[in-house]
Amino acid sequence: QVQLVESGGGLVQPGSSLRLSCAASGFTLDYYAIGWFRQAPGKEREGVSCISSSDGTTYYADSVKGRFTISRDNAKNTVYLQMNSLKPEDTADYHCAAVILGSCAVVVGTSKGPYGMKYWGKGTLVTVSS
Fold this sequence. Notes:
mainly beta, single chain, globular, four-stranded antiparallel beta sheet, about 130 residues
């Protein structure tokens, strides 16, 4: 089955860290740029980070820059999102997906234009609360 599966979410206190994983099955993940998205209740989906397929260039939304780090392990067919200094406003359902249209810069909002994704995972919930 071709899919992406996210894991690693949970309930943590402000200032804590979590590492999310995005594991691919049924396809080779390193052929694609991979983006991490989040959606909080009542808010629009936000592209928070993306990693290119070619040279591993990383991209971040301003809201997470300096706190989140995206990486990929092609041998494990997995992309990670290390989240440090978590804030209550980081609370959301986090999903990963493969970029099939557009660029990572568009995904995280640093460039304008359309983008398209596929292989959306079911998500992992991150709750930051004291």
